[in-house]
Automatic annotation (TrEMBL):
This protein's UniProt keywords: Signal
Name by which UniProt lists this protein: Polysaccharide biosynthesis/export family protein
Organism expressing this protein natively: Shinella pollutisoli
Domain Polysaccharide export protein N-terminal: 98-177
Amino acid sequence: MTGMDNLGGALKGLGSFARVLSIGVVLTLAGCVVPSDGPLTQEVISAGADGRAYEIPKTKIVFDVVDIDQRVANNVTAFGQPSLARTFGFGGGSGTPVIGIGDKLQVTIFEAGPDGLFSTADHKSTTIPVVVQPDGHGQIPYVGSVRFAGMTLDAARATIVDALKAKAVEPDVIVSMAENASRTVSVLGDVRNASVVPLGLSAQHLTEVLALAGGPAKPPYDTYVTLKRNGRSGTVLLQSLVDNPKEDVIIKPDDQLFVTYDPQTFSALGQTQVSGKIPFKAASLSLVEAAALAGGGNLATADPKGYFVFRYEYEDVYRSVVGDDRFRDLIARGMSADREGRYPIVYRLNLAETQSYIVAQTFPVRNKDVIYLARHFATDFAKFLNLVSGSSSVAYNVKRISQ
């Protein structure tokens, strides 16, 4: 009897344990954090500068959350791309070309008589090669040292003619550029013939200089051009020079051009059908087109009010979108730029509104954007119920075994 009593007590204790376990599991699940795939729509909005009800810690990234409407889409389109013309000015050429150090000249001297200093019975002229030395001078027989550096070809001709009038027979002179070593541009990177390109006597555009270097090795919509001049630099997509001739600036001596192949991509995350890095494969991409490349949203879990674009924007774009006062306020709160001078921002598209599908056609997606489709808040509740249901079934089975 003692053994039976002990067995009954054990089973009774096990039943009590099962009841406690079932209650404990439910309470634990009610208080736990349900596994999720990124923040909810309201959590993204609350993370913005206006959504912080507390003082922002220095370790937090300060950014604004902006709803996309037609005004925002238009401003992002108008100001969104970096501009060489705004950085350097379009330029009206590099001024009148002059002779520089290292240039190779051909100086041809004519005389009227057959027995002059530079003429014979067979030849009425003599051609003299001249290399401009580091001190800017070059030597001409019977003239001596002539300072060519800083002179135009016409000025050099007049100087030599004047020096020969008392020595030669009715002299005349032609000065031509045999090799231009002082007015050059370095073209490096993903071009077919990286080289130092000499500039001609007339103004030359950036695309013309690239052509002299063999042109870009990759498609223009995946190729970037960086122009460096006098300590400043600017980078643009090569396709933008094709689409907007005003960006095809005049190149000046000593400019440097770096051509880089960097395929345009965006990252799709969250409740999109396709996740990961997705290539543009085009010169430009609208938000609607990007959404289509990502396969649209998961109808069972996506929140149509939470379609977000995370990016860093240039200051002039940011100011045009939020206004100067708002921008200064964000700076005061601690918003800071990345190494390229861009500031963090999040754009939100509410796909529950019909007009959003029209606006999204004019909102441009940029290279390296992160597009995030939030999950619906009901998804977490459904997960919770599934977990509770599964745990309750386990507790019920344990109870039956103990009885």
